[in-house]
Write a structure and sequence with these properties.
Shape: elongated
Radius of gyration: 15 Å
Structural class: mainly alpha
Number of strands: 0
Helix content: over 70%
CATH architecture: Up-down Bundle
Number of helices: 4
CATH topology: Ferritin
Strand content: under 5%
Distance between the termini: 48 Å
Oligomer: single chain
Largest sheet: none
Number of domains: 1
Order of helices and strands: HHHH
Length: 139
C-alpha cells in the first residue's frame, strides 16, 4: 500500500493534468487569427497528451488504493496569445517541479513503477515547456 503522501501527490498530478487538458483544448478551440492558427494544432496535440497523462496517473493511483480526483486545478484560457502561452509555460514549469518531486518520493518508497511512469511523463512535460518557450521567442 502506498503512503498517503504519495497518493496525495498523484492526485495533485491528476488535478494538474485535468487543468491543462481543458486549458489547452479551450485555447485551441477559442483562439482565432493568424497567430492562433500557427499554434492551435500544437495546443490540441499537447492537450491530448496531457489527457493521456491524467488517465495513466489515475490508473496508477487506483492500483495503489487511491481514488482519482475529478477536480482540475484552476483553468486559465487567457486574453492574448502571449498571455496564454506565458501561463502555459509556467504551468509546465510547475509540472516539471512536481514530477521531479514525485519521482524522488516514489524512489524513496521503492516504487519503481510510479517512478518510471513519471520519468516518461516528465520527458513530455519538458518537451511541452520547450515548445511554449520557443513560441514565446517569436512574440
Amino acid at each position: 500500500m502506498a503512503s498517503k503522501e504519495l497518493l496525495d501527490l498523484l492526485n495533485d498530478a491528476i488535478a494538474r493534468e485535468l487543468q491543462v487538458t481543458i486549458q489547452y483544448m479551450w485555447q485551441h478551440v477559442l483562439w482565432k487569427g493568424v497567430e492562433g492558427f500557427a499554434v492551435k494544432d500544437e495546443l490540441k496535440a499537447i492537450a491530448i497528451t496531457e489527457m493521456k497523462h491524467a488517465e495513466a496517473i489515475a490508473e496508477r493511483l487506483a492500483y495503489l488504493g487511491g481514488t482519482p480526483t475529478t477536480k482540475p486545478d484552476p483553468i486559465f484560457v487567457g486574453g492574448s496569445l502571449k498571455e496564454m502561452i506565458e501561463k502555459d509555460k509556467k504551468d509546465e514549469e510547475s509540472a516539471i517541479e512536481l514530477y521531479k518531486k514525485l519521482i524522488k518520493k516514489a524512489r524513496d518508497k521503492e516504487d519503481s513503477t510510479t517512478a518510471r511512469l513519471f520519468r516518461k511523463i516528465l520527458e513530455d512535460e519538458e518537451e511541452h515547456h520547450d515548445t511554449f518557450t520557443g513560441l514565446l521567442e517569436g512574440m
